[in-house]
Amino acid sequence: MNAKERSLRALRAPRVQGSREPDRVPMYVTVVSEMAEALSRITGIESHNCDAYLTNRISHAEILTTLGNDVVGIGSTAPDCCPTRARPDGFCVDEWGLVYRQVPHGFGVYQEVVERPLSGITSAGELARYTMPDPGATGRLDVAKDHSQRYGRDYALLGVIECTVFEMAWNLVGLEQFLTDMALRRDYVGLLLDMVADYSIGVGLELIHLGAGIMLTGDDLGMDIGPMISPKMWREQIRPRLQRVLDAYRAAKPDIILAYHTCGSVLPFIDDLIEMGIDALNPIQVTANGMDPAALKRQYGDRIALLGGIDQRHVLPEGTPQDVDLEVRNRIWEMGQGGGYMVAPTHDIQADTPVENVLQLFQSVKEWGQYPLKPATRASEVDPPAVMLPA
């Protein structure tokens, strides 16, 4: 069974009858650019950072597949006409009109938004003066086409359309203002949500045409303690537009696997997402309130696949390779029974994570993910498998 077959079987498992387990649990690991450079020095493979809003999801495919990824992300990049450019003041501006500055943190350098093109908007008339990026702009899918040709036969292609409706809309405006304007039902809000949904449909259909077997949609809906948006308001204003996006993908490819990314504590939304046709939930943020992986598997495992669960907040950056090994083994045992599970970190692996822990993650999935699964064991009883570098 190759990586593509393994991944598709795992994520389809809750919706099929008969044998549902692949040969082993598949994995989809993503990393920030500093971690990719560290892995490049070990593997001898050059890192490739894409000019994209969600660059970490689609970059460094050669390094990550060599280490063991079963999935290759494909998505839109900045088109030929509108690359991200540096301004004279040192800030960068992208095709959406978002302005960034580089801010160093203990876990790497991040591009943080300092200006938003629709900040302060009050009306539909003002929105009419904003030009959305063109889904079909020349060059937008050049990287996706290359990855499809290089990896599409052997690896599962995952079309990345995160920030599908809500998250991109609020990014253009600002979170506090947009949530307030949703509550006040400002006349521009629905129009902006529709414009973002239209963009997601346009790019997503092209990715399906290029061979994506999985579409990763999503909008972060949760904080550590619970939802960041009222489920009632989400159902009234976001869900219908997200449903339109999902329906367009399903119409284009009836057997497409629809995955949904939302960080945080999101229990109130899971039943809705299942009703809407979502096949897999990501990233299973195990540190958030109520997001216990074993409980999620028991309650939802026969209706939705789980994609994620490896703790990026504490275990990967702060633990030992033995801690990582136990984390992988426990998550696989808790969520992998009967298939329906793909290993992934709960966020892109950050620059403060020891490289040995990243290598251990890949090695442990191969060790403990073989079906039939081996029961989880207490840390004191487990010796981690030796970390193996790629041949």
Fraction of residues in H or I helices: 40-55%
CATH class: Alpha Beta
Task: Count structural domains.
Answer: 1
Spatial gap, N to C terminus: 20 Å
Report strand %. Answer: 5-15%
Describe the global form: globular
Write out the strand line-up for the largest beta sheet, numbering strands in chain order.
Answer: 1-6-7-8-9-10-11
Number of strands: 11
CATH architecture: Alpha-Beta Barrel
Radius of gyration computed on alpha carbons = 20 Å
Low-confidence stretches: 378-382
Arithmetic mean pLDDT = 94
The biggest sheet, with number of strands, parallel, antiparallel or mixed sense and barrel status, is: 7 strands, parallel
Treating each run of at least 4 consecutive H or I residues as one helix, how many helices? 15
CATH fold descriptor: TIM Barrel
What class do helices, strands and sheet pairing give? alpha/beta
Order of helices and strands: HHHHEEEEEHHEHHHEHEHEHEHHEH
